[in-house]
Amino acid sequence: MQIGEYRLNRPEEIDTPAYLVYEDMVHHNIREVLRVCGSAQRIVPHVKTHKSAEVLKLQIAAGMNSYKCATLREAELLAEHGVSEIIIAYPMVHPAKLKRLVNLLKLYPEIEFKAIASAPGHLTALSEVAQAAGVELGVYVDLDTGMHRTGVQPGQEAGDFYASIAAATGLKALGAHVFDGHTLYKPPVEERTALVDKSIEYMHDLWDRASKQGIDVVDNVVGGSWSFHLYLKEERVRVSPGTWVYWDSRNATMSELPFKVAAVVLSQVIDADPDRDTVTLDVGSKSVSPDQPVEHRFKVVGHPNAVLTAQSEEHGVVALNGEKLEVGEMVLVAPGHACTTMVKFPHALVVDGNGDVVGRYGHQARDR
Q1: Looking at the domain covering 23-247, what would its CATH class be?
Q2: How many Cα atoms are found within 13 Å in the side-chain-facing hemisphere of 338?
Q3: Could you tell me the pLDDT band of residue 343, with boundaries at 50, 70 and 90?
Q4: DSSP code for 282
Q5: Contacts (Cβ under 8 Å, ≥6 apart) of 185
């Protein structure tokens, strides 16, 4: 089976749907992110995309030792593999989470743990964590530059809150954390650049306010997969994309970035309706993430005109629009969102450059 760059030997021996990761493409993506960023020290990869010890080891081998995560299980995975810095980029308020965080800080004193905050309750909780663990915990102000999901508003509110971090017992104010999710799914680079420039303006305002109050700004962690490279002109930032390691069909619409879609789902055509010019694949919402608009949930590799029109739990109905697919035929689909498709599977099958399945990447941090 050969579709473009994707070769797979004996696909009939793999039950479908199956999650495949092409290891040569992962290595390509690692090389390219380092080239784009200039060094491993400029990038803080988000572990959410792969949640895998095996992929993490590849990143560590490439010199990446600082990571961002959203869940404590991800933080535990990172700590277990000896990274030097872990930024937990999710508000910590639940007592069970705070207890686990204290335990992590005590168990791994050699690792530099950091957190984000944007509400007084976050500071209260994190201060208690720091005191319980006997550490000074670095904290970034989570700055809402336009996504409107979490974060304080730029300007006076951000400056005042940053001062509150610096004044809190056991906490050290570090700088800004910015996830600019409002840049997502905007292929024109000019549109994203304008949004990034506004985020940079907001950060500069925060830095100025901090300076006037005599508070240091030592680090800033910014951006996501749709914007990270547009911040690199700023010397005082590190960038934090996640999806680059696997990429996906929606990210691939950004023509200026050199990554390859390394993770795909092996599927089979299970039915056809010639009158409607559709086929049905065994790729439903339980095997490819439904968090995208229907037509963007996956693309059929090698069949650019085919479009997903309906999806249920175990079925995906595809309008062929002139493409040819037969019942029983094996196909590959490129997810529209790599991060949320990966968690559908307990592991990925690793395919080498010859098309042979040579191992597995476990999804050890799949659960919270």
Answers
A1: alpha beta
A2: 29
A3: very high
A4: S
A5: 226, 250
Average pLDDT estimate for 132-156 = 98
DSSP state of 276: T
Question: Can you name the CATH fold of 2-20+257-362?
Answer: Lyase, Ornithine Decarboxylase; Chain A, domain 1 (2.40.37)
Give tens-digit pLDDT for 264-314.
999 999 999 999 999 999 999 999 999 999 999 999 999 999 999 999 999
Whether the Cβ atoms of residue 234 and residue 168 lie closer than 8 Å to each other = no
Given this model, what pLDDT does residue 163 score? 98
Return the closest-CA partner of residue 341 out of 291, 270, 268, 307.
291
Tens of pLDDT, residue by residue over 54-104, are 999 999 999 999 999 999 999 999 999 999 999 999 999 999 999 999 999
CA terminus-to-terminus distance, the chain: 36
Token duo for residue 8: 């797979």
pLDDT at site 284: 98
SS3 285: coil
Give the residue range(s) of CATH 2.40.37.20 domains in the chain: 2-20+257-362
CA distance 288 to 233: 36
Pairwise CA distance, residues 343 & 163, whole Å = 38
Concatenating the DSSP letter of every residue in 147-186 gives: --SSSBPTTHHHHHHHHHHHHSTTEEEEEEEE--GGGTT-
